Please model this.
Amino acid sequence: MTNPGIDPTFASALRDRLLTAVAEPPRPHRRLSRRLGATASIGVVLAGTGAAFAAGVFNPPGRTSETPQGTAVAAAHAGTVTINLGRPPKSANGVSLTLTCLTPGTFAFPGGTLTCTTLEMHLPATDRQASTTVAIPANHRVTVHTSQAGVWSLRASYVQQTTTAWGVNAHGQTYGVINSHGTPDLVAVDNGRVAGYVKASDMACASGGDVANPAQAVAWDKASASRDISIPLYRSNGTTIIGTFTIGSAHGPGARTVRLSATHLACAQP
Amino acid sequence: MGWFPDEAAAWAAAVDGDAEGFAVVFDRYLDRVYRHALRLSGSRHDAEDLTAGAFLELWRRRRQVRMVDGSVLPWLLVTVTNLARNRARGLRRYRRLLASLPRTESIHPGADDILDQQIAAGSAKRLQQALGQLSASQAALVSLVSFEGYTPAQAAGVLGITPAAARTRLHRARRRIELALAGEPTPPDGLLPSLEDHPT
Model:
């Protein structure tokens, strides 16, 4: 029996799609924080380790909830367009924005940038979105910047955000989630098996927070490619260890996880 | 067209966003991957989907791909095997993309049926069923060694196991396939002889 070859029409189209995807620039942002003022670097660190401090059953203090105020605005446009959101209700203190790309391209809007590739055009809309909540703009307008060929849709609604207070343990340490007020002493995380808190100082150190100059940054990048760092996971009392939390995205045959205390990082020393 | 001294260089360039590097890998292995998919699926349409899925996974998981002897082919073949074992789940993320890719209309009605019959005549269907009874690592081992001509040591490199473990698992997997093709029930692994039991 002769072994038939692959359908050339199918193969050619597949090849084109793949090569287009390879040549497209990587997207700088995907999911954006839904919290006012949350720092992007922390969000990236946690997302990269598969953790979520705002997830599910764990309900740490300091969380922010949103309640829609007024009517949402939804529109689809091509190219750079400014949208008038109208006057905000008095009760609103933020604007929730969800941007969806309808063609490949890079789309900048308040709070971040969304880049979509050709391959992703076939994903559900929820996989081609970036969501964020920002402070109410002074002129009540939001601009989406993109090329003339870029087609997108935006849903915007005024919201009222309310943030609960962080907890304070017996040692006077604040604990909870990172929010618009900053970072508590003990930051809520979930390592996939157990939820708890890590010391903000440990997290900063394991994330490269002690880098003081470009040479150190280069050395950090090199080390991080093959090494993840685990830090202790505590109860809210800040002393009872209940597990570890791993920071990093090392990959490849030599990838390994080391304890923060076993590194030579200056910030790891007591 | 860019020039690359070897496949490893082409693949390294591809990972950095060089489409020509990826094209080298795609063009080199498209037929091999498709033939393997055809053998496992027994259907031309399914084999096309599996082939596309393997290359799409190659790009999506480009930073985790394990090269063997400077080649990504073993990784591609294992990926096809894994996708074939659970096609619906493995290809779910590419469902819309696969549906959008154009395909040549059959010139003669029923041509695919005839093709499928030809493939079935080569025991593809029975082989597919036999492979379905293996664990994922056993199926990958059989695919690489029995179908694609890799040594057990090379296959072990792809799967991250020792060569000795690969030989043992391969022996059991082959025995299991023989029983399945003969229409006999296959006992659990623990009841199958290992290489250590019957050195050759």
User: Anything to note?
Assistant: Confidence is low (pLDDT under 50) at residues 107-120, 190-200 of chain B. Residues 123-200 of chain B form a domain with the Arc Repressor Mutant, subunit A fold (CATH 1.10.10.10). Chain B touches chain A at residues 14, 17-19, 21-23, 26-27, 30-31, 34-35, 38, 44, 47-48, 51-52, 55-56, 59, 63-64, 66, 93-94, 96-97, 100-104, 115, 118-119, 121-122 (CB under 8 Å). DSSP finds eleven helices and no strands in chain B.
